[in-house]
Specification:
The chain has helices at 33-43, 68-73, 110-126, 142-145; strands spanning 8-13, 18-26, 52-57, 63-67, 88-98, 170-171, 177-178. By secondary structure, the protein is α+β, with helices and mostly antiparallel strands. β6 and β7 (177-178) form a beta hairpin.
Length: 182
């Protein structure tokens, strides 16, 4: 899908007769782990309760996976069971539905049902998702930039090695600067 939050993946399991539509979102890079989980849950307020969310963690092979209905009751269930302070790396959102089994072009056919499921997944889950963006950096307050005591005039200048202020120098063959008078 052009301009979607992330690439969509669709897997048709013919043996189990299921179609799984999924999308993988990178987790925020700032905040506590619980805040990062809440970020994705807030975006899924209108998603179906049988949406499965799988969390992968930084520097770990373990993952956690729960249905959205269970996560709404206990959001901390998506955190790492071995280390709740481990930051989530990404979230996979997956929705599994039965395959269309009939042949042909009519209602319940393989192509029509799977096409409908793909469009429904995009409409119910992916369409309203936004990728995480870092907050823009803040500039320091203006009061910190202004000096407390204003200066009365320009800074003093001094003549250097017999030159007057503003007198030019020239470079010799080695690239060093030298006085034109010497």
């Amino acid at each position: 899908m052009p301009d979607a939050v992330a690439p969509l993946a669709f897997v048709a399991d013919l043996r189990a007769r299921q179609l799984t539509a999924s999308v993988v979102l990178d987790a925020p890079c700032e905040g506590r782990p619980a805040s990062r989980v809440n970020w994705i849950i807030r975006q899924l307020e209108n998603a179906p309760t049988d949406l499965r969310i799988t969390t992968s963690f930084c520097n770990a092979r373990e993952t956690t996976s729960l249905l959205l209905g269970d996560i709404r009751e206990n959001p901390r269930g998506l955190l790492s069971p071995t280390d709740p302070q481990r930051a989530p790396r990404c979230f996979e959102l997956a929705l599994t539905r039965p395959l269309g089994l009939k042949t042909g072009k009519g209602s319940g056919s393989f192509v029509r049902e799977n096409r409908r499921q793909v469009i429904d997944f995009y409409r119910e889950v992916v369409q309203n998702l936004k990728a995480w963006q870092a907050k823009p950096p803040k500039l320091p307050d203006r009061a910190a930039e202004t000096p407390e005591t204003p200066q009365s005039g320009p800074p003093p200048f001094a003549a250097v090695e017999g030159r007057d202020i503003g007198e030019a120098t020239t470079a010799d063959e080695s690239g060093r600067l030298e006085d034109p008078e010497t």
